[in-house]
Design a protein that fits this description.
Shape: globular
Radius of gyration: 13 Å
Strand content: under 5%
Largest sheet: none
Order of helices and strands: HHHH
Number of helices: 4
Length: 86
């Protein structure tokens, strides 16, 4: 039986929203709002995942870098059934 994994902090549509922003801070506020909404809806989320997600948003230096980071978060989420090879 396949277990369905809930979606993560972001979805791929969020990358398009980020790329349409004119200001990096507006894009970051959008991301932080998405994170806070997810936490409210999923109070059992691991604190280390919240910290990692917030750090990725905080450290982004450009809108494009932020969109790529968010896209990577989506692709790395277990709901996508993708694995990182080491």
């Amino acid at each position: 039986m396949n277990k369905i994994t809930a979606l993560g902090f972001f979805n791929m549509d969020d990358t398009a929203v980020i790329l349409k922003q004119k200001d990096l801070m507006q894009a970051k506020v959008f991301c932080f709002d998405k994170i806070e909404t997810f936490i409210k809806q999923h109070p059992q989320v691991k604190p280390e995942n919240v910290t990692k997600t917030r750090n990725v948003v905080t450290k982004a230096k450009t809108i494009q870098a932020l969109a790529i980071a968010v896209g990577n978060f989506v692709l790395a989420h277990p709901s996508e059934n993708l694995k990182v090879s080491k």
